[in-house]
Amino acid sequence: MKFQLVDRFFIKEHFKLVPKEIHEEFRYKRLVDREEAVREKVKERLKYAIFSHRWLSKEPLHRDVSTEPMEIPAPEPGWKKLQEFCRKAMYGHGCKFAWSDTCCIDKTSSAELDESIRSMFHWYRNAHICIALLSKTADLRALHMSQTGQSGAEIDAWFLRGWTLQELLAPSQIKFYGANWEPLSSLNPSNDRFSRDIMHPISRITSIPPNDLESFSPGTNRVPEKMLWASQRRTTRIEDIAYCLIGIFDISLIIAYGEGKRAFFRLMEEILKRYDRWDVFRW
User: Fold this and answer.
1) CA-closest candidate to residue 68, choices 10, 142, 132, 126
2) What digits encode the pLDDT tens for the residues 96-151?
3) Max CA pair span of the chain
4) Residue 130 and residue 124: Cα distance in Å, rounded?
5) What is the pTM of this model?
6) Cα gap 241→268, rounded to integer Å
7) Please, where are the H alpha helices in 97-162?
8) CA distance 200 to 197
9) Secondary structure of residue 166 in the 3-state scheme
10) DSSP reduced 3-state for 70
11) Which ranges in 127-257 belong to alpha helices (H)?
């Protein structure tokens, strides 16, 4: 399988006729919620898969991926993981476009990194499918065992990372794969969002109520509860403790790596502008 890195200008050119086609399709239709119908049609026509995973020590980065069709250059775990993700996106979910944070963000550009972090929640929400890899979970039985610690089973690292919280909550459709890239559940081949077999143990592991796992609305309501979900997670960079929650609380925050703990103070300042209840720190 070959893949290549494309930019937004390529995407714009590729889909340039879609807006006109959608306009013609809805031109004479009388709908109760026209805006929502058009939005869903846009997602259907411009669909892409997005990746949620735990980073390895070495991953293919933006500079490593060619803008020309390429095979994986080395049989390294990071490249093989990227290849499997693209296979699942194309052949499992019918997506010709796929996005992975490892190689689709040019982290040498502060402007692109800033835009990416601010937009991340929306990118995951608008994806046709989020492919989530639980690399330390063999199968559904292992997931159920990890929620109770049965037989010494440990919780997958995916549930302990800061960024994967929004990657769990934001997508409308999400499909979980185990360590061998087999689906954890075969009941629904394309979406685990409403699978009790999957979401019940995840709810127990994350302390997130089932209703939120089925349909999450971002915002500055229920601040203590959402902070409790995040408090069980860790990030590599200290600033990301704040940045990974921007989408969860639906607020805007300037990205400034190097500011250390001040990032979280600024996050709380923005939250307090909208949430003035006494229990804001009760987590």
Assistant:
1) 10
2) 999 999 999 999 999 999 999 999 999 999 999 999 999 999 999 999 998 876 66
3) 61
4) 7
5) 0.92
6) 12
7) 110-126, 140-148
8) 6
9) helix
10) strand
11) 140-148, 163-169, 196-206, 210-214, 223-231, 240-243, 246-249
